[in-house]
Amino acid sequence: MARTRYTAMDANMPLRALPAAALRAVLREGYSREDLKSDVLAGLVVGIVALPLAMALAIGVGVAPQFGLYTAIVAGFFVALLGGSRMQVSGPTAAFIVILAPIHTKFGMAGLLISGLLGGAILIAMGVLRLGRLIQFIPHPVTSGFTAGIATVIATLQIKDLFGLQLRRNPEHYLERVAAMFEARGTASLGEFIIGGSTLALLVLLPRFTRRVPAPLLVLPASVLISLALTRLLPDFHPATIASRFHTTVGGRVFDGIPQLPPLPVVPWLMPGPEGAQFSLGLDELRPLLSGAFAIAMLGAIESLLSAVVADGMARTKHDPDAELISLGVGNMIVPFFGGIPATGAIARTATNVRAGARSPIAAMTHAVVVLAAVLVLAPLLGYLPMSGLAALLLLVAWNMSDAKHFIHTIRVAPKSDVTVLLTCYVLTVGLDMVIGVSVGMVLAALLFMRRMAEVTQARLAAGSHPDVPGTLPPGVAVYEISGPLFFGAAQKAMATLQVVEDRTKAVVVLMDEVHAMDATGLVALESALESLRKHKCLAILSGVRAQPMALLKKAHLEQREGVVFSANARDAVALAERHIGGDPTVSAAPPAAVPPVQPH
After folding, report:
1. Backbone φ and ψ of 403, nearest 5°
2. How far apart are CA 585 and CA 503, in angstroms?
3. Pick from 260, 380, 394, 418: most CB atoms within 10 A?
4. Dist CA 527 CA 521 (whole Å)
5. Which CATH number fits the domain 457-594, given the four candidates 3.30.750.24, 2.30.33.40, 3.40.50.720, 3.40.190.10?
6. What percent of the chain stands above pLDDT 70?
């Protein structure tokens, strides 16, 4: 079992200290030969797992499988080297398929690589601006909804290769693709389905007997054997394989399947455009790519940081989210120059890395080296992998990604508002676009949050007596108690009663000890209510103001306004009100020392 350490990253760490934050923390603690051995073994295991996944995910995007391998090699190495998570493994992921496939269809390989390059720049900017911790504020129904939606799209799109369908058109949008596959239903191949179905069955059943060996390592070679056996039994059957589907020309030499070469430098904007046409780089071409780049950055940040959190929970470590975003951005800016597609943290590979005994980022860097070695040594053999077998692998990935049991459980037990957000994100992600689904989901969640804050925040006006004040209140004194945050949506409701106090009321004690937070809307609503009291010649005494609201009130110079004083507690406030009614002129001009000090926050 791996030795785990918990090392908290400093939230105020200077920017120059963020690159390679995790690796430098490990080296400071002391890195032994035993640690290196554990990392190398873990990297070997993860590299074996990543090999078929990287190819399958690239094919899912619509590009040749070697570009997925190049992503695992280049991005996987640099993100681990520069990152803020000790156990994170980065590479191509299933979640990116729904974003990258339409970009590739519409803009070609050049547009895909440029989108990844721009997305990397956005990720670096997010890390520099310290936005890493903001990802945690995305509501769970939003992430669950779009993740399940992405999984649905991925699973549906595998029907083509699973059944060997011959599509006459390859539309950009999901529903149109489903229609195209339905139109091609007559081209389905029984042989392809036998290969894909048996591969899927083995991928599901094998882990029930043993988990010592990654299932794809045994099942995909079996898929090749099944394909070869069917070819012998059915002379007219020619299954689609990596070698038969993909052909690459390098230096005038044509490679069937995966070239037995390392990732070679390319110029992204000189790669082929849509349908192999020449890509023209200009502002008019860049503008439509920006929306895709933004989607790549947002999804990459969300998935990568969620993966880092999973790794922290398994290994009892602590990642730096800003360092992770910067490293992910750097990796995504480097990898297009080697033909790699966008990358992010991969939860399944990260979990495998932790379980295999990884102790530092060197394990993920080793995984990249293992994939490189496989390309250089095993490329000819990888060409025999059947497309239907890889489709079966992606089907299983999509099923695991969807977390269907949790999705259904959430629908059954969550509040109706959360279920509404969940289903909205899911439907929009499947039917339209992930960016639209997440955007609408976030807006809907924010509106529902405002409504909940309005329900949580309570205010009541008491005259005669109040539990915090012994005895009865003096005539002409009322106590107005506010409980809950004074945020947008709740502020107007909380202040409404305060603006309509009776004319005989000469002083109002506003109890604010249960108001822990206030925003600009709350400040405006409070100022409006206090102005109404002033016009009625009624003194307002703000009692028990907490640190954050007090800081806001001081910035607004509320302690200097006529008819407003502060008090530390309800008893002192009532005493001040009694003195005011008795004609004490010093009460309405309380000295600044009477304002409770603002505590650091």
Report:
1. 50, 55
2. 20
3. 394
4. 10
5. 3.30.750.24
6. 90
